[in-house]
Amino acid sequence: MNKFSETLTKDNSVLALIDHQTGLLVSCRDLDPHLMTENIKGLANLAKAVNLPTVVTASMPEGPNGPIMPEITNILGNEIIEREGEINAWKSLEFKRAIEATGRKKIIMAGIVTDVCLMFPAISAVAEGYDVYAVVDASGTWNSTVTQAAMHRMTQAGVKVATWSSVLAEMMDDWRSDHGTELGGILAQHTTYRWVYNSYLTAANQK
């Protein structure tokens, strides 16, 4: 089994969150802002729950792009790679070395905006042999047309387009796994899956 057919686990993956900065969020019109924020928080909580290595980067946060959104730092802490000018985060040696230092070839990647902050490093990483999962619902951009164009270009380059809930389910693998109940709770916290999860808890408590 090669890295492209191998499924995601907490032991073979790294999360990269790129440029989720307060000043850039105004550009995100393809998703409801509240929904997108919940998706980003869900992805961050997933990483924290399974102790997934995480690399967070920001582009010139002292300028109009602003700092990383507090919804991320409140969950994952304030360790952020601040880039001085590289639009494509993969061209930042510090960012790339942080990914390489994990020794993992699967990158779960999200970014603001989808067609730049996510698409460019996703394609660049694939070109160097990484297996990239582009989490498009924890990313955002101007409108749905731009999203579709970015998704097409990424898939043409070999990037796997994904959603945060599918990443969570793939990593959970089995409700009986060590993190099964906790991950189900994260999904319930950030989506309408909460009703299914509540039913599951009720049934489990009746056994």
UniProtKB/TrEMBL annotation:
Domain of life: Bacteria
Isochorismatase-like domain segment(s): 15-165
Pfam families linked: Isochorismatase (PF00857)
Protein name: Isochorismatase family protein
Originating species: Microbulbifer variabilis
